Amino acid sequence: MAEFLALRCYACKMFQVKPRKKSSSKWCCSVCNEKQSVTKVYGSSGAAKKIRELVQTLNYSTLAQQQDHFEPNDVGDLTTQENGQSEVGEKNVHGYETKPSKWAEYLETEVSL
């Protein structure tokens, strides 16, 4: 039976449910795509439903704490390029650095008439 873990990303601070891997302790964040190793397990169970409920409550509680301390001027200005992508090194609304898409150089830009 598979075991599911509740993990927290170091970059975006979001809790997520991931299955335990036998071969390695590495995982990739679904929100910000940061590859990282398992440093702390916040919960584990054989039933994914239980861990999903735990992760939801943890994410809601951290969101509530952030909103209590949030001030309207905390969100930095995002400078965007012509294609709508943020510049490298800029922080988005969630507080982690945005990276340009690897496909951006291959995509055609839209021309408005």
TrEMBL record:
Sections of the chain in a coiled coil: none
Region (Disordered) location: 71-94
GO cellular component assignments: nucleus
GO molecular function, one term: chromatin binding
Biological process terms in GO annotation: mitotic G2 DNA damage checkpoint signaling
Domain MRN complex-interacting protein N-terminal: 7-106
Protein name: MRN complex-interacting protein N-terminal domain-containing protein
Organism, scientific name: Selaginella moellendorffii
